[in-house]
Structure formats: structure tokens, C-alpha cells
Amino acid sequence: MGKAAREVSARERIKSQRERERKEQARRRVITIVAVVAVVLAVVGGGWWYYQRGKSETVSGGLAPITFQQDGSIAMAKPGVQKPVVDVYEDFQCPACKLFEESSSATLKNMAADGQVKVVYHPINIFSQEPTLGNTMRASSAARCVPAGQWSAFHDRLFKEQPPETRSGFSLDDLVKWGKEAGVTDPGFESCVRSQKHAQTQAAFSKKVFDAKLVPDGTPTLRLNGEIIDNNVAFSPGSLRQAILDAAK
Hints:
The protein is α+β, with helices and mostly antiparallel strands. The chain has helices at 3-54, 95-113, 132-143, 148-160, 172-181, 189-194, 199-211, 231-234, 237-247, and strands at 66-68, 74-76, 85-90, 118-123, 221-224, 227-228. It is built from nine helices and six strands; from the N terminus they run αβββαβαααααββαα. It has a six-stranded mixed β-sheet with strand order 1-2-4-3-5-6, with helices on one face. α2 packs across α9. The longest helix is centred in the first third of the chain and has 52 residues, at 3-54. The N and C termini lie far apart (83 Å). Keywords: Disulfide bond, Isomerase, Membrane, Oxidoreductase, Redox-active center, Signal, Transmembrane, Transmembrane helix.
């Protein structure tokens, strides 16, 4: 091979090598772009999934019937529904309980109305000093004066009107007013609230719950078929719904 031919051959090899390098770089760019897109989609998808799980429901229809149970708790369930059971231990003065009501209570109401769960409320009193002690006792005692048909509306109003922990609230005048606005027409309702007729019963009920160590970490405490539900689930409506559905299998 002459010198000229060798030079031509070398140029061809260099050209061929550069072409291979160009194609390899293009392939790597495509792989990088695909990987970045996949990561972005995973992040967006995960965020959307998380958002949906944490999104609060709205009460979509009527409520399941309310019944007062012999032990002093209040059950919300369609006739014949015995399980799964979600026990809700809450205090009308407890800020975390109010947050739970705002995030997940509609899920429980919707599922109870659909016959998917029996919800049992246990209003208790976790505070021992004023003004919160008086607040929670007035509210919980008044709730025991409310007939079953208006209990849920009154319960929800108490959380909506929850006073700060630093000042007196839930006045007797307000409790009477809110009861009537919830639809209570029982002529004995007002005197029941103003005399705090059920205060001792409420205190005994609360003590029984604490003595049984049913709320080891305070309120709110949710139990699903007796087992405590982690707060990460309780405060995530989608996760709470799924946990109840799984328990029903």
C-alpha cells in the first residue's frame, strides 16, 4: 500500500471512529432523557397518589343511624352492621381531635352510611386544669343531653366552635343555642345542659376509659377491631378507608 493509500485508510478509520463515538453519545443522551422523564413521572405520580390519599372527603349523603349504647358510647352504623368496628376516643377540647374531625371524620361517616363500618364514639375528658377542664366537661355533659337524631350535628358543632386552650369556652348559653340550632326540640334539653345533669356520668365514663388504658397516647385514639390505628393512617382519609376495607376482608 502506498503512502497516499495509507493516509486515506487512516482518515477513513478516524472518520469511522468519530461516527461510532457520535452515535454512542446520542444513545447516552437518549438514555439520560428517558431516565429523567421516568424520575419526574414517578415523583409527580407519587405526589398525586399521596395527595389523593390525604385528601379529605365530604359527606356524600345521609348518615347512618346513631344509637346510645349501654356503656355510654355512641354508635353510628346501619342496622345489622357489627364489623369492622372503629372506636374513636376524642375530647371536644382537644385540638388534635379537631384536626382529625376536619381530615377524616367524613370518611367514617360515608363508610358507616354505606354499611362498611360501625363507628363507635367515646367522648372523654383528658384535661385536668382550668380552663380546659371546665370546657371539656360542659361540652361532653351537654352532648349527653342531645337526642340521637341530633347528636352528630351537635358533635360536629362542638369541634367547629372549639375554644383555644387558654380561655374559657363552651358556655352554657352557647351550648343551649347550638343544640337548638342542631334541631333539638326536647323541652328538657336546656335544663339538662344548664344543670350539667350528666357531668358525673361523663366523668365516670371517662375514668373507666383511662383505667382500661384504652388511650395510652392521648386523643384522638382510633382503634380498628380493637387495634390502635397509627396516626399516619388515621389522619390520611384514603389510608384510613383502605385500612377499614382490608379489615372487612
